[in-house]
Amino acid sequence: MSSEYSENDSQNQMNRGMLIVVSSPSGGGKGTLIDRVLKTVPNLSYSVSFTTRAPRPAEEDGREYFFIDRATFEQMIERGEFLEWADVYGHLYGTNCKQVERERAAGHDIILEIDVQGAESIREKIPDAVSIFILPPSFELLRGRLLARGTDSAEALEKRMRGAPSEVEQFRHFQYVILNDDINRASHQLAAVIYAERARRERQEVNLRGALEDFGVFRDAVADPLDQ
Ligand code: 5GP
Fold first, then answer.
1. Would you say the CB of residue 96 lies under 6 angstroms from ligand 1?
2. Superfamily for 11-207?
C-alpha cells in the first residue's frame, strides 16, 4: 500500500523516541558511561527507576532512583505502573511506564539502565528497543570497582560477585556489546551506537518527509520500501 502525505498530517509531528536498554553486571561501570553520554548526546533522557533499596550516601531521591518502601512498590505493581520490574539481589527495582511514555511521545530517546532480567522483559514487550550490554574487562576489575564504591556490605558484595558470571552469560541476547576497558573509548562507542540507531531508515519517517516529498516519493517508502 502506498499513499502520499496528506495535507492533514501534522507538520509538527515528531518521530517517537527510541528506548535504549543498557545492562551490565552490578558494578560494571555503566553509570559513569551513561552520565558521559547524557552530557554529550542531545535529545537523550534517562529513566529514573523506583527501588526498595536504601539510598547510598551520595544518592538523592529522584535523581539516581525514587526510593520507596516495599508496600508502595507492590501497590505500584498491582496498579500496572511498571513497564518492567525485577528482584535484583533482594531489592525490587522497576521502570515507570509513564515516564518512559512521556519522553518517547515527546520525541526523546530514553535510556533504561536495568539488570539482565529487566532487559529480557523489555525485549519481549518492545521488540524495537535497542539493547546494549556493557562488559567489564575482568572479574577482578569488577570486584575492585564494587570494593572502591565502598557502599556494599561484605555479604552484599559477595552476592553480587557470585551472580556476575550468569549476568555476563546474558550478553549474547543483546544487539550490541561494549567492552568497558577505557571510559573514553567506551563512551564514544555508546554514543556511536545511539547515533547509528537514530539513522535507521524506519526511525526517520518524519525527518525524511520534506526531502522525500520534494522528490515526489511516497511516505510508505520510508517505513517499508518492499511493500510498494
Ligand atoms: P544498584 O543497587 O547497584 O543501583 O543496582 C543494582 C542493579 O539493578 C543494577 O544492575 C541496575 O542496573 C539494576 N536496576 C536499576 N534500576 C532497575 C530497574 O528499574 N529495573 C531493573 N530490572 N533493574 C534495575
1. no
2. P-loop containing nucleotide triphosphate hydrolases (3.40.50.300)
User: What b/e readout covers 7-19, taking b as 16+ CB neighbours within 10 angstroms?
Assistant: eeeeeeeebbbbb
- Reduce the secondary structure of 195-219 to three states and give it as a string: HHHHCCHHHCHHHHHHHHHHCCCCC
Indicate if ligand 1 lies below 6 Å from the C-beta of 157: no
96 CA distance to ligand 1 middle (Å): 13
Q: To test ligand 1's pocket by mutation, which of 46, 51, 115, 132 has the most ligand atoms within 8 angstroms of CB?
A: 115
What is the pTM assigned to this prediction? 0.90
CB contact burial 166-184 (16+ within 10 A = b; e otherwise): ebbebbeebebebebeeee
Q: Where are the domains of the chain?
A: 11-207
Residues 6+ apart with CB under 8 A from 198: 18, 109, 204
Strands 49-51 and 91-96: antiparallel
Task: Identify the DSSP state of 88.
Answer: E
Whether ligand 1 lies within 6 angstroms of the CB of 205 is answered as: no
CB proximity list for 147: less than 8 A, separation 6 or greater: 157
Mean pLDDT for each 10-residue chunk of the chain (228 residues)?
38 81 86 94 98 93 97 98 96 98 96 97 96 94 84 84 93 97 96 97 88 82 52
Cβ of 113 below 6 Å from ligand 1: yes
